[in-house]
Amino acid sequence: MPLAPTFILTSTFIALVVATTLIRVWLGRRHISYVQTHRNLVPVAFKDSIALDAHQKAADYSSAKTKLVMVEAFAQAILLLALTLGGGLQLIDDVWRNLLPAQDIIRGALVICSAMLVSSFIDLPFEYYKTFTVDERFGFNKMTPAMFFSDLVKHSLVGIALGAPILFAALWLMQGAGDYWWLYLWLVWSGFNLIMLAVYPTFIAPLFNKFSPLKDEVLKQRIEALLTKCGFKSQGLFVMDGSSRSSHGNAYFTGFGASKRVVFFDTLLERLNADEIEAVLAHELGHFKHHHVIKRIALMFAVSFLGLALLGWLIGQPWFYAGLGVTQESNYMALILFLLASPAFLFLLRPVMASYSRKNEFEADSYAATHANAKDLIEALVKLYRDNASTLTPDPLHSAFYDSHPPASIRISKLAGYTA
Known about the structure:
By secondary structure, this protein is mainly α. It has 16 helices and four strands.
């Protein structure tokens, strides 16, 4: 006699949640052990540029963050099981059904928002601890509690303003657009994301940071010459007040189409000389020239298409609800169940995605070595590794799962080949 689909789904879900949590903890323990084992010896490639105390600080910082992630993994697993098989979602649904018995779409939005609110309450203490204990202890935090909670309120309001329309559109399409609601929702979701890429730099990012035009005329001329050489047209060169929240440094370009802009953290400009800044920007332009942003957008659209198509089938399967702890079927419950459960089924794909991201980084480095000086990029990266306390000796398996950028030693070694 074949096993019932409900039992198969429940058993598989529990197994994946447990396995994912244990793998996360196991990888964390491996990483901490590996980092601490290599704590007292600077790798050969960095022995002349990074002092032992800086290397040890990076090892301890990485270990502290990883310990927090391990604890968070258990909390997230417990919450997930409580919301699903523990009946949490069904309890939330029952409360709103009693209050709004005839308002399916509004009730659905409130159920989903309530579940997300519960999840945020679990994540909040970890984020606060990381900011005001871990980052504070290692000298990176520049935020005050008032700023932390102000940002939290801003993020929440922006999330509601942007998320509510797309959520109501999703629930409306699920209710009244027929069997192909998922296709129409995919089109709406894709359009929304393209619009967000265009408006984020100009209207949303300034809500959280100050962006001012780059004032260093000599550096500006060098950067504009590089942009012209690489065929990159931007809305402008901007400096972001990253130092108001953290001492970490970075640079990036953001936006889509005519709204593209180049952004430098003020902390980055303070630490790097003009040659190094130009090399870092050349790396970022390498992502642009290799169409990495477009490829990632296309990949995101492809994944969302497949995900919504799958949800379009699951929504009509009673075992999907019962197998995840829900007794009353509804469109909105199918949506929130899918969003909550899918990460457990996709976790083992993380190394594939991380590998793809690291491949993109190598391509961008190669481009930078062609259009700037590879030695300058090496010097810039070494300073960033040191100043951001990025560990030079990550556990290889942990890195394969989590790191979007190549390990420091491998990356520097490859760049050094361009200087030979």
